[in-house]
Structure prediction request, 677 residues.
Amino acid sequence: MVHIIQTISDNYIIEDDYARCISRGNVFILKTVYNKLKILNSKDIVSSIKDLSNLVYNTNIPDISSIFNHIHLTKREHINNNSIINNSLVPFNMRYNGSDTVKYMLNITSSDINNILKDLNSTIINNYGKDLTVSIISGGHCYENFIMNKELLINVKSLDSLGIATQEELDSLKLDTNKNIIFAQPGCYNWNCALYLANNFGVFIPGGSCYSVCLGGHICGGGYGIDSKKYGLTVDNIKGVELIVFNNNKYKPIYGTATAFNTWYNHNYLKEPLFISLSEQVFTPEAAAWFACTGGGGGNYGLITKYYFDITELPTIPTKTYYTTINIPYYKDNKIMTQQAFSRIIKNYMNYNIKSQDDNKEDNIFAFMFIYYRSSNNLGIKFVVWGNDNSLSPQDTSFFKSIFGDLSNINIYSDIDTINTDNDIYLSNWSDVYNNLDSGIHVNSYSYSSLDVSINYSVNSMPYLLNKQNTNGSGPNRKFKNQCIYLSKDNYLGQTSDDIRITNLYNYFVFKWKVPFWSNSDISISAPENITAYWQLDTYGGKINRNPPKNATFNRRNLICKIQSQCYWDDTLNSSPDISYINYWNSVYFSIADQSINGQKLIDNGVYINYPHVEIKTKYPKKWEEYYYGNMAPNLHITPSADTLYTGTILKQCKKILDPSNIFNNKLTISGIIHTL
Prediction:
């Protein structure tokens, strides 16, 4: 069922109760008496039927016992609802709190589409009007305040089932009438999904390893994780979606399918000018729903209630998985890491990602590279490497030789002269989530050497599910500011021998230099107190880039690396305001992403909609939609070729078709207005 909860009322009885009293024929409870009753009951004055009788001056009111029982039932429900609300209004990012913004919460617990529609249309529209804007929460991991910023919050945390699609669903999806189609609901955690598929079918959905992220927002942004280099993005495996949209003053379902989009793509997109193929008479809601939900971002078009997959097309679980961790600290034996070593390691990592794109064997390797802001834990550059059916030996992968092989002719450390290690920034234990990877079976150990130090690593092996659980990086809920940078083979860090961006990163992270303020470069700012920060670089490409679906919403298929810049802080340790951390981390981000090298900026590679960063819209008011949503057509009179998918333009039309009233929106929602270049 669906429960509507009023979150801002201090009274136990709301207008619905008055309406119920009147509908029972209790004409003696006039509105003035009802209002008095409401106030007094909130103060616990009405505690017996006698109190109620005395209050309304008439002991002969029909059904007075039922009215009293309803009052106390409502009171109990209010207390229970407050518990639900208090738990639901706690997002992953503790910068946000919905208690001052969210007035109503709609708690969806029924998986039946007809029940959901009935309650959506009767509860929301009848009680609160058709113009109420809404936001949606599943896992609550949004990096920006796109969840706690609307009057009505639709809570789909209880839509957490996985199962076999019914015949009715197959008919709606126009899919083959076999039993290979499974559904996954938006409130299902990544970890629960992995357990269900592994235990029942021996397969998995390629995607993220953060266990507490839910499928609702994860998939509709693309779905990327440690399996993606080998098996592609989550959206590359989707067969259909069940999407509830608000159109013509009514909530209704649309079943989007790859088949519907493929039909339009082949028969219209490639053969007609865009002004014809994108018209509402040609571009069907079913095609629009599928495209919007497979890379168009969460909370932009409607309420996703189910994703559909064919279990026979999902990859089987690897026989063995391997992992290792390697930390190269910033200082050792009273010496500091040199800029030469810092730069060489980053460039080697980039070169590996470029060279490995055409090597299927290297698809089995997924490597995190962490570049830490200098801290008291003496972390520096750290690698966490995962191998699917790959032992991580020098014979099985070129990764380690690529990273460490040519360090043999340099000194990694030099004497400390100007750096002060006494006032290092505090780094809380949870930020280094990979420090304690000590489980599994030890397989082998390897070593590489520079002129002054040896780099050693041990490889462990464990079953796929345990390894994936081990490498999750969710951590606890806390305040943070995270961002994204994509790197392509034509535009990446270390592209030139003297890449100033790596030099700046070294100075900011190792020596803690001031950084130009992101919105006014005439000002430079320092890091606030007790900051925990790092850049996480992830290997990319492989299957993602190799022969992807030609009609994939996520059409950036030339990437070699994804950077997730992460900054965390703890109120119990700090006196600095939140904005000081946000401003500092934005300044570091834009000093690198906006720096032009040979006429190119890293930001021009685009950014991941699942890592929203609202200041990008402020910084690039004319380009932000293209950065987040993809290519925009120069005009609507062209007939596109097969090698050009104008993702941004198509998503704009999806918005216009699926959500013309803009009921579902946030600060980075794509508009339904198509501007030609």
About this structure: The chain is about 30% helix and 20% strand. Residues 344 and 407 are 8 Å apart (CA to CA). The chain has a mean pLDDT of 83.
